[in-house]
Amino acid sequence: MGWPRQIFFGDVDAMFASAAIVKAPELAGKPVAVGGQAPRGIIAAASYAARAFGVRSAMPTATAIRLCPELVLLQPDRPLYRQMHERMQGVTARLFPTVEWSSIDEFYVDTTDLHRVYPDPASLGRTIKQAIFDETGLCCTVGASTGKVTAKIAADAAKPDGLLIIPPGSEAAFLADRPLRALPGIGPKTGERLHTIGLRTIADLLDPRWETSLRPLFGQRLHWVRELAQGIDHDPVVPDRESKSMSHETTFERDTGDPASLERVLRGFLTALARELRQESLAAGSVTVKLKDARFAVTTKQRRFSRPLNYDPDMWPTVRMTLQDLMKPGALYRLAGLAVTSLTPAPSGLFDGRRSKAIEAMDAIIARHGSGVMGLGGVSRTDDE
Ligand SMILES: [Mg+2]
């Protein structure tokens, strides 16, 4: 069976503790933890040697020292983590076109289109691990599957220094025995409730026996949770440089399926983003529209402009078309977002002289009086959801 999508997930093993050991190799093999001093401090990360004593992250440091009296306790070294993160970003950017760093030590890559270059996913996985180790000295566990959730659960199951490929068609069988808490959206509270009812594994979520107990617990989300439990997961890998650099999104007070109001929201975002582009002397080569539906499923669609642009009236027809493609009839959406992507320095001569003057004047008015005067009314600012 071919790969409809191929997603890799990489997660550095005990990142903070491992980084400290790379910096001070004499600590290798010793029980090392990063955290605050006892009596009030908490462990942030523990090496595998420390874990063998039962030391865990989020444990009070005092408890950790009681379990492991020879524990080497280190203070967090954020510049070091940042530096390692940047070097790993360099590696993934060199290897892959589409990378999403979801945290300082975790990333997703969509390798679907690399099949011809890397026909064997296991060898691609080893390539990723080796490249990160060569660059930073850090061990990274890698999982791969047809979706992000299964790839991550595979990596979690293969730690430390592991590599686990879940081929297409075997996602549900792999997930079946995994604990419920491995699934995103099942936090400690929900996990506890499910445990009380009698559920233990991801497969239990699919068992019709529990239908009546699960329905009130998950409501409308049940369908989505059950899809994830079978490894059905279309969540895209969203390049972080692009999504973080210039994007706006908002959660609506009430879910909406009205094309006109979604267009109004995106038009407002585009006006603001285009102005930011001009202020930075940048132009966007493409645009990404993001929608989150009432079941929290996120879909995105990207489209390229015929040339890099930074004047919103020129960009709008493409954004509008992208939104129309993405919307499903009858669906209700809780969040809409817009990102301008593939940013490049604005080519000089993007506009003729008269038009540049008019745009400059408009931007000056906005700078003096705020964006409200230029038709951003009714659109809320970016939120952090
Ligand atoms: Mg990690």
UniProtKB/TrEMBL annotation:
Q: Which domain of life does this protein belong to?
A: Bacteria
- EC number(s) on file: 2.7.7.7
Q: Where is this region: Disordered?
A: 235-257
> At what residues does the UniProt record annotate the site feature described as Substrate discrimination?
16
Annotated Gene3D superfamilies? 3.30.70.270, 3.40.1170.60, 5' to 3' exonuclease, C-terminal subdomain, DNA polymerase, Y-family, little finger domain
User: Where is it chiefly localized?
Assistant: cytoplasm
Q: Which UniProt keywords apply?
A: Cytoplasm, DNA damage, DNA repair, DNA replication, DNA-binding, DNA-directed DNA polymerase, Magnesium, Metal-binding, Mutator protein, Nucleotidyltransferase, Transferase
**Cofactors demanded by this protein:** Mg(2+)
Quaternary structure, per UniProt, is:
Monomer.
- Name this polypeptide is given: DNA polymerase IV
